[in-house]
Amino acid sequence: MKKIFLLLVAVFCCLLVTNAQTSSYYETSITFPKDYKVGDYVSFVWAEAHGSGAGGYYEVSLTCLRGNMAAGATHLYSSSHANPQIWREAGRINDNPYSVSSAKAFTVDVKTNASASEIRVRATAVQGVLDQDMVVNVKVRAIGITSTFTPLSRIGTETASSIPLAPMTAEWNLWVGNPFFSEPAKVAIKADVNGNVGIGTLSPAEKLSVNGTVLAKKVKVTATGWPDYVFAQNYALPSLQEVEKYIGEHQHLPGVPSAAEVEREKVDLGAMNEILLRKIEELTLYLIEERKEREVLKAEVEKLRKAQTDK
Questions:
Q1: 3-class state of residue 16 by DSSP
Q2: Measuring CA to CA, which residue among 173, 178, 160, 107 is closest to residue 138?
Q3: How big is the chain by its Cα radius of gyration, in Å?
Q4: Residue ranges of the alpha helices (H) in 98-144?
Q5: How many whole angstroms separate alpha carbon 32 and alpha carbon 65?
Q6: DSSP label at 20?
Q7: In this predicted structure, what is the pLDDT of residue 38?
Q8: Which segments in the chain show pLDDT lower than 70?
Q9: 111, 89 Cβ separation under 8 angstroms
Q10: Could you read off the pLDDT of 142-186 as tens digits, one per residue?
Q11: How do residues 67-84 score in pLDDT, each as one tens digit?
Q12: Which residue segments constitute the domains of the chain, with CATH numbers given?
């Protein structure tokens, strides 16, 4: 009888390790068979958030072990009370890879629904000792208020080469200041729902908006159409008379934005560098032409001087 009791206790403890659960977190262990392949997945839990799903904010951590290979990662996703019922990949906020060059072994996908979300682990690479099963330990933490977790066990294969990304948040802010003082915090970083990032501003209008001075050791700008074509034989170099006439009519160089345009549209550094280089190259051609003309005049003057000397 004592042996049976101890056996029941042991089984119960194993079940607790396999599926530990509270209203704030859910833990389980998933085994992928040794012949698993990229795209295979296990849908393991249904998470229902408080407030008709409005508090759906989850952190999903993985550790995987297969022979001599061990790795881990943490993902984050957000769901509300009304979302499209599609599979999307949760964002990765931490990665502890097996090696620097190793591919990510697994990722986390979520299918949001009205007031709840289904979570799965999907294989993205085959690693480790191939004749052994792959064990993936998972912990889901409800960052939002109170969740109900319902265990699942659905397996399948995702045939799509890539799936959409799941939102981690609709807005992210970093406000800094010393809480000891009464002064309001200063805006350090703001990320909005459009993917725009602001530094020192709450209203980023571009992918990166900076309200202040940028100091950098190096800035690289992607540019196309670099103006080497100016030196092509068929390039139509405007005459200096044409340039003079244009300046007189418009008060700026041809092909260069006016002060009003710059004030209205701002300056594209890549485009402006192309424009400035084109003007430098055109100026170089003007100087070459002028040198040739001077050489001709110099030769004529020398010829006249020699003629005068011979008289």
A1: helix
A2: 107
A3: 34
A4: none
A5: 11
A6: E
A7: 95
A8: 1-18, 100-101, 311
A9: no
A10: 998 878 999 999 999 999 888 999 999 999 999 999 999 999 999
A11: 888 999 999 999 888 888
A12: 23-157 (2.60.40.1680), 171-215 (no CATH), 216-311 (no CATH)
